[in-house]
Amino acid sequence: SGGGLDSLPREDISGKITPTLLKGLESPDWKIRLESIEAVNKILEEANKRIQPTGTVELFGALRGRLYDSNKNLVMATLSTVGGVSSAMGPSVDKSSKGILSDVLKCLGDNKKHMRECTLTALDSWLAAVHLDKMVPYITAALTDAKIGVEGRKDLFDWV
């Protein structure tokens, strides 16, 4: 593209991805986990949704755990946040995310339509940040994953 948004500076948020924040994402108390997810969203807002990859490997690692949270509302909030982080990072998200896309895609296995919709929204954000070819290996694996039911595979197939 001819410059546009890509020419705007990206903020280094690594100083805000504190051990306390990362620990909060793993807290046994769901309220603290939710507050931590919301804190990540606030960091993205403060950076005008344009961030550098510095410090995001650890962040993605902590967010990955929330995609398997027993509290489904937190999983949906995490999907939204993962989408937000990928949008804010742009193309560099591919290197920092360490395969979190396969964890995102597993959420299509949920029997709740709303969960699958949140997953597809996260995929939209991802697609806006990277080219589809970077996503294809993950999508291919998801389409053959027996744990992702018929509905989830259909949703993904329709999305592609």
Automatic annotation (TrEMBL):
Statement: the UniProt record of this protein carries the keyword Magnesium: no
Ranges in coiled-coil conformation: none
Keyword line: Repeat
GO molecular function: microtubule plus end polymerase; microtubule plus-end binding
Domain TOG positions: 6-160
Superkingdom as given in the UniProt entry: Eukaryota
InterPro entries: ARM-like (IPR011989), ARM-type_fold (IPR016024), HEAT (IPR000357), TOG (IPR034085), XMAP215 (IPR045110)
Gene Ontology biological-process entries: establishment or maintenance of microtubule cytoskeleton polarity; microtubule polymerization; spindle organization
Family matches, as PANTHER family: MICROTUBULE ASSOCIATED PROTEIN XMAP215 (PTHR12609)
Protein name according to UniProt: TOG domain-containing protein
